[in-house]
Fold:
Amino acid sequence: MKRILSVVTIILFNNCSTQIKLNKGRNVDFIEMQPSLSDGKFLIRNKSSDTYIIDPMGFFGKTIYLENDKPAPLMLYPEGYFYRFSDADCKSDLIILEPYQQIEANFTLCRDLSGLGIDITKISKSNKYSYIVKSVHNKSTATASGCKNYIENLEKQGYKVLEDSISAKVPLTFDYLEK
Structure:
């Protein structure tokens, strides 16, 4: 009886969870923790014996914003330019994910080169918002903002740059509208 009760409890707990696995890879999972933020907090779980290098700004691709499952009113915003000039910057910014480690980290799902975002002046409480993100992370995207020598030195020590992609539809909530 205890075994059945335990199994039912585990199933109910897992089904009530709103966690979404965002990436396609098998060795590392990216789990959404705060669905209201596209550059929010995520759970990153290494399920392998490898040590991975992850650039929190290293996912590049496209993002499509939706309002009630249709393209949302958009506005253009300047993304700016981000670059790391020293190994100290690289050491403080890059995520080193040890074997079987699980961490919470903030990172950007997609550096969208189009520079489009939801027009926050047109958001309505009565509408449902989400976005579809398709992005990749690899050595090329991880070194786009600097750190090439730093990453290559880590690779010589046996570390691997994460090669993965994210393809997900992510719900957005705007909690400040509720207040």
Observations:
- The first helix runs from residue 2 to 16.
- The mean pLDDT is 81.
- The helical segments are 2-16, 87-93, 139-142, 148-156.
